[in-house]
From TrEMBL:
Organism (species): Citrus clementina (Clementine)
Name of the molecule in the record: PPM-type phosphatase domain-containing protein
Entry's Gene Ontology molecular function annotations: metal ion binding; protein serine/threonine phosphatase activity
Pfam families linked to this entry: PP2C
Keywords, comma-separated and alphabetical: Hydrolase, Magnesium, Manganese, Metal-binding
Length: 402
């Protein structure tokens, strides 16, 4: 007769062997599946299987239960190995691209979701910006006019926010001309509007005033304010700094709002005709603070309401309570020592000082090469903003008697 204790001991050994073989079978099966489909989880799942056998945890057994992979999920796995096998036909958009994660059905195995794959479209020369109105812009361009030279370079943004404008032979007089350089922000809507309307509004106002210098300066100020009012009525939130010059009757009338600058060369010596409207100027900062705005130093500059670093501009609807469009003006008589003007956006002046700019233009005989050289210097010194440089030859506007 078999001893009862011996029977129980034999049964226990058989049961233990049975559970060991069943656990080993699951571990081998699971390891095969994870090696094929989920290589980053193979070692952890195998350890979980060993843990199930030795510790008998129910949660562990549920964690490693083999998933039931659908046909669609198998296709996605194949697509991981060969992206050309599976693709969503009939659409090239990012939203409709099939990039998925395998989800288990009828199992509790947790699979960490992978981030969606980044689909980078190929460059297309017909890509349009601003809806259907404007083609992809060139990064650099030049304009050679009758009395001026202009060079522009787009910075790190996808669109050029700088602009320019000019009017020659005003009222049929070849010695009357208007030039402006514009630096937009928050989009280029304001820069485009200023380029197309500021000169026209100033010339229109010239017909309502006399020829006295003080009246001409008033016409410049009114032109700025009218342009600002008209642009604001459109409800667009972008803004633009601008500097302008009006050449009339052997006089130079300068106006600016913002941080574009005008520099005059007097026999090779730089004469800055404008002052930047930035909050680093104590008078401008005090004016804005007294009007109730919050001003603080952020990212290397004083800013209005934590955003705008200039204190005067055309536009800026959301900040118009503090950002005024009234320009500062200056008038001077042209003499024989007046050689040329350099008008530029802050993309130049943040890296190149006035005398250095005059020296470059003088060495290159006021040629297009001088404009491009100034842009190259600014870029080589780390500027990533848009740059616009205009050089105006004053020979024709200087009275012969001088």
């Amino acid at each position: 007769m078999i001893d009862l204790h011996q029977f129980i001991w034999s049964f226990s050994l058989i049961s233990l062997l049975h559970y060991f073989l069943r656990g080993l079978k699951k571990a081998i099966s699971m390891a095969s599946l994870t090696i094929i489909n989920f290589p980053i989880y193979s070692s952890s799942r195998l350890l979980s299987s060993v843990g199930e056998f030795f510790f008998g945890q129910e949660e562990t057994r549920q964690e490693i239960s083999p998933p039931m992979v659908s046909q669609e999920e198998k296709s996605l796995i194949l697509h991981e190995k060969n992206p050309n096998v599976v693709k969503n036909e009939g659409s090239n958009s990012l939203e409709n691209t099939k990039v998925g994660n395998i989800n288990t059905t009828g199992a509790a195995m947790k699979v960490r979701k992978r981030p969606a794959k980044l689909v980078v479209p190929e460059f297309c020369a017909s890509l349009e910006l601003y809806g259907n109105e404007r083609k992809l812009e060139r990064k650099e361009f030049e304009v050679e006019g009758r009395d001026f030279l202009l060079a522009c370079k787009r910075g790190r943004r996808e669109v050029m926010e700088d602009g320019y404008g000019f009017m020659l032979d005003i009222h049929g007089d070849p010695k009357q001309a208007f030039f402006t350089v514009i630096d937009g922000h928050g989009g280029r809507a304001a820069a485009e509007y200023v380029a197309g309307n500021l000169g026209r509004n100033i010339v229109k106002e010239l017909g309502n005033v006399g020829d006295e210098g003080i009246q001409l300066e008033r016409a410049m100020r009114v032109g700025y304010q009218v342009t600002d009012k008209e642009f604001l009525s459109q409800g667009v939130t972008s803004g633009a700094c601008t500097a302008s010059v009006l050449l009339k009757d052997s006089e130079l009338h300068v106006a600016n709002a913002g941080d574009c600058r005008v520099v005059l060369s007097r026999k090779g010596v730089a004469d800055s005709l404008t002052k930047d409207h930035r909050l680093s100027r104590e008078d401008e900062r005090s004016r804005i603070e007294n009007a109730g705005a919050y001003v603080h130093f952020c990212n290397g500059a004083w800013r209005v309401q934590g955003s705008l670093a200039v204190s005067r501009a055309i536009g800026d609807l959301h900040l118009k309570e503090w950002i005024i469009s009234e320009p500062e003006t200056k008038r001077l008589s042209l003499t024989s020592d007046c050689e040329f003007l350099i008008m530029a956006s802050d993309g130049l002046w943040d890296k190149v000082n006035a005398q250095e700019a005059v020296d470059v233009v003088s060495r290159n005989k006021s040629s297009m090469e001088s404009c491009k050289k100034l842009i190259d210097i600014s870029s080589s010194r780390g500027n990533m903003d848009d740059i616009t440089v205009m050089v105006i030859n004053l020979d024709k506007f200087v009275p012969k008697s001088h």
